[in-house]
Amino acid sequence: MRVIYWALPITAALAYGIWHHYAALVYVGDLPPFDLHFYGFEDGRAYLAGLSPAAKATYLGPLHQADTVLLLALAATLMLPVWRRRWLWCAPALAYAGFDLLENGAVSGLLVQGISEPGEIYTVAMLTGCKFLALGLAVILALWGLWRLRPAAR
C-alpha cells in the first residue's frame, strides 16, 4: 500500500510535466488551451481559427493522452487520504475526473468538426468550470484527510 501512496502522486506529477510541455505548444498568441480558460464564443472561435494543423494534432494526440493520465492519477491521488471513509468522500475527485473527460471529448469535437453553434463553446466553458470546482473540493477534502491521518490525530 505504501508504494501506491508514493507512485500515484509521482505519476500525477510526471504526467503534469508532460501535459505542461504539450500545452505550451498549443497556445495561440496569448490564448491558452481550452483546459485552462473559460472561453466565450468570439475568443473560442479565434482560438480555434489560430490553431495550426500541427497544433491541432498535438492537442488531439499527446496533449489529450497526457491529460487523461494526469486526471486519472490526480483523481486517484486525491482519493487516497479519504478512501477509507464512505465513498461519498471520493465523489469530488471522481466528479473532477468525469468533468475533465467530458471536457476533453467536447474539445476534441470542436477541434475535429469546428464550431457549429455558440453553445458548444459554452458547454466546454461550463465543463471547465465544473472540473475546477470539483478539483478544488477534492483538494480540500484530501488535505483534510491528510490532516486527520497525522500521528497527533490518532
TrEMBL record:
<feature type="transmembrane region" description="Helical">
    <location>
        <begin position="7"/>
        <end position="28"/>
    </location>
</feature>
<keyword id="KW-1133">Transmembrane helix</keyword>
<keyword id="KW-0812">Transmembrane</keyword>
<protein>
    <submittedName>
        <fullName>Uncharacterized protein</fullName>
    </submittedName>
</protein>
<feature type="transmembrane region" description="Helical">
    <location>
        <begin position="121"/>
        <end position="147"/>
    </location>
</feature>
<feature type="transmembrane region" description="Helical">
    <location>
        <begin position="94"/>
        <end position="115"/>
    </location>
</feature>
<feature type="transmembrane region" description="Helical">
    <location>
        <begin position="63"/>
        <end position="82"/>
    </location>
</feature>
<keyword id="KW-0472">Membrane</keyword>
